[in-house]
Amino acid sequence: MVSFEQLLHARLDSLQKAVTDWSETVKKLETIAEQATNGMAKKAEKADWKGENAGVTKPFVKKTAKEFSDAATEAQSIHNILRDALSEFKAAKKKLKDTVDSAPDKGIRIDSNGAVSYLVHPDRRSKDYDGPKPTEADFEKARADIKAALDRANDADEIASRALRTLVGKDTADFSGTDYESLKQAARFQDAEDAKAAAKIVAKGDDATSEEIARLNKYLTDNKGDAYFAERFALEVGVKGSLNYWLDMGDASDGSRLAIDHPDQIKELQKNWSLTLAAATQSHSPAMEQWKADAISSGSDVVRSHGASAYGFQIMSNLMRYGSYDTKFLTDYGQALTVAENKMTNNGSLRAGQVWNPGLSMPPRLNWDGKDLGRDPMVGFMESLGHNAKASASFFNSTIDLTPDNHSDNKKLDVFKYFTKDRDWPEDAYKGGYDNKYGYDSLGHALESATTGHAYDAPTETLKDARTLDNAKVVQKVVDFYGSDPKYMHEQGIADSLAKIGTAYIDEFNRSLEQDDNDSMRELNNSPFGANLPNGKSRFGSDYDENLLFNRGDAINFLSIVAQTEEGHSQLSAAQSVYTANTVGTVGPKPGSQEIKPSDLTDAHTVMRIGSETHGILDNSRIAQIEQDYQEGSKERQKAIGRTTEWIKFGTETLVGGGIAIATDGVASPVVPVVADVVGSATVSALGMLTDDVAEDYAEKDDKEYKKSFDEMKQDALTKGQSNALLPARAYAMAPGWSEENSNFIEEDLTNYVKNARLHSREDNLPDPYKKDD
Quick check: 579 and 511 in contact, CB under 8 A? Predict the structure, then answer.
């Protein structure tokens, strides 16, 4: 593995000399080979030898001539490998050096281990600092360039070293004669070799040993992201091979102990296999297009093993839980799967669980991730949509012709309505019981990608505001449906996904909440929220430059219902706080302005008012649900109300990707992708410091706190909630650059608006808390 420092200071003179030397060696060996072939070998062939000379000497001469030819070929291959490796190392080193040399001009420091940081941290800059102020995009590019350079060098190093070992071979008395024209050709040869070796292990099924499965996993992980290997593996194993193998692994009736004794290996294999097939589907070669067609056409076929059977769709979907599959393939697969389900259920006369869970006493285990057994094919398919935002948005915005062979009956299915409302999601066995919780989890993941524009589990540091009009069309459906009745979210258990969706559209919810009319779809003139592109236009197209995605009433209903749950309240509260801080710092006067007057803070007033009102909606909704969920006088009720303000335990100083990661206790980190490129934002940085201080006040509650009545604790929670809603105003007022007089004026002025808005939030007609049916 080539390190940052090794590549940056690599001395390539020796490798350059080796390339030159091998070039000369090739010329000499080619001359000798030509003489041996056209001279010695031809003369031996023409010689009229008898006896022992004919039987021994002639074959020896011909073999020797061939060895000279093989030596020349091998030498040429070695030269080609070293030549290309040198070229790759040079390019990688130059890329790395250029990145390091240009970093200071951008205000970036790159350490000896490749770590990227500020040349002068914002906290240490003097008041008259006028040097470069790098954005998060600058940091991202520097990190990406460093990684690209190191990856290029390490790939070249790995391929070259393996190729050279192959050329030398194990037979010291025989030249291999292997012919590599380039490093790229060597890589292709290695990929094909690995794919064949992996396929041989697959052919053994569950008769393979644990050591062989470990080797199979290594083949797949070592070639992760290698498109050519992925294609070769998919084609070597074939669609039927994949389906038969995976069913065999989940069938314990044949006496095999492999999966029973080594479930962690099979779990890893499922992920690696899925990632590999996902990469393979990105190929559009004729062979892979046929593979994809076969995978879909095999979906309705019954696959059988020793003592188990399953539909092709059930097996294939479990091999689609990881990785980003080709968009068209996912769309075609989803349509075919939905049509098949409709046909099997006789157009809904039967429940989906009746056809996918036929009551077998020993059903095969198709999923090994520790969740469900994998009998519902829609679960794995939804997971695959969760990793491909484009396919997911397209799918949920579509209708499906349920009888594609009959063009006259017009039987159409609304995809979003079917999967969110009409479909009876099958229950499946899992370690905690028998339920459909993982089915709805997967639906939530698919909706996340369909609305946010990125995979539901994408690394936080890679997130940008990727929302498109297609994503917006899905979020409109989400807000309308899940905001219509709290039972859908609560019964499906997808509050975490809906909270992330709400977080990603926090800007649009603020635009809607600014309205006085609950039904209006027109943005107010001169709104401080406005569209979020630099040119003042909406990223969702001209129709939304002045129009809203959803009206005020729908926004209140959705936010309120999601906030009824602890995770929803925590994520949305944190997101609103960060968004308010960033927006007030953007639209308000910049620190250093002189003689601030109330009229200068008009936009800041609006931002703080809407932020405070939103917090009021969220807090009141959560408290109302607590009153519904927990028995009066119980300690659980007291603890729940005490936790309503603990969303403040997050670090806004963690600025990553295109958004801000908010790490709340026990809740997956939401992201505010609409808060882009705010590294160095004085208001957001100040908010981070304030919340760090405030979080210390939210230590474990003592017994005295819990001895208060619920009404007292409720009032305390609302009061603290108001204080937390004030933090963005305080952060703006304490941002570096303000005079003490201006700072005090701003804080006092904005505080009044927050308190008044908090009172206004009580006038909102919030949805009733969810009540379980008896």
Answer: no
Question: Rounded to whole angstroms, what are the CA distances from 459 to 33, 92, 228, 453, 661?
Answer: 56, 26, 25, 13, 10
Cα torsion through 133, 138, 139, 144, rounded to 10: -170
d(CA 574, CA 571): 5
What is the Cα–Cα distance from 507 to 675, expressed in whole angstroms? 9
Question: How far is Cα 57 from Cα 608, in angstroms, rounded to an integer?
Answer: 98
Alpha helices in 630-739 (DSSP H): 635-642, 682-695, 703-706, 710-725, 727-733
- Give the Cα separation of 406 and 518 in Å (integer): 44
**Crossing angle for the helix pair 227-237 and 263-281, to the nearest 10 degrees:** 110
List, in sequence order, every beta strand (DSSP E) within 374-527.
399-401, 412-414, 428-430, 433-435
For residue 289, the tally of other CB atoms under 10 A from its CB is 15
Q: Taking a C-beta distance cutoff of 8 angstroms, is the pair 635, 709 a contact?
A: no
SS3 label, residue 4: helix
Q: How far apart are CA 463 and CA 501, in angstroms?
A: 14
Name the residue with tokens 């093989």.
Answer: 70
**Interatomic CA distance for residues 449 and 383, integer angstroms:** 10
β-pairing, 433-435 with 428-430?
A: antiparallel
For residues 377 and 356, the answer to whether their CB atoms sit within 8 Å is yes
The answer to whether 511 and 550 have CB atoms below 8 angstroms apart is no
439: left (phi over 0), alpha (psi -120 to 50) or beta: alpha
- Alpha-carbon distance 14 to 330, whole Å? 50
SS3 content of the chain, % helix, strand, coil (to 5): 65, 5, 35
Q: Quickly tell me which residue has 């406005």 as its tokens.
A: 530
CB 80 within 8 A of CB 137: no
Question: Which residues in the chain land under pLDDT 70?
Answer: 33-69, 169-177, 358-362, 461, 650-681, 695-707, 757, 759-763, 774
Number of alpha carbons in the 13 Å side-chain half-sphere of residue 11: 3
What pLDDT does residue 171 have?
52
296 closest CA partner among 259, 339, 254: 339
Per-residue pLDDT, 697: 66
End-to-end CA distance of the chain: 62
How far apart CA 386 and CA 392 sit, in angstroms, is 7
Question: What's the token pair of residue 531?
Answer: 């569209």
Tokens at 569, concatenated: 């309240």
User: Is 47 in contact with 150 (CB distance < 8 Å)?
Assistant: no
| Residue position matching structure tokens 């020993």 | 362
Residue 72 to residue 76: CA distance in whole angstroms: 6
pLDDT for res 667: 41
- Residue 645 is classified by DSSP as G
- How many C-beta neighbours within 10 Å does residue 238 have? 16
- CA 429 vs CA 246, 378, 475: distances in Å: 19, 15, 31
pLDDT of 165-209, one tens digit each?
Answer: 878 765 555 565 577 888 888 888 889 999 999 999 999 999 999
Q: Name the nearest CA neighbour of 621 among 666, 576, 670, 667.
A: 576
The pTM is what? 0.85
- Scanning 9-57, the segments in alpha helix (DSSP H) are 13-35, 42-46, 52
**How many angstroms from the chain centroid is the CA of residue 278?**
14
Indicate the burial class of 735 (C-beta count within 10 angstroms; 0-12, 13-18, 19 or more): buried
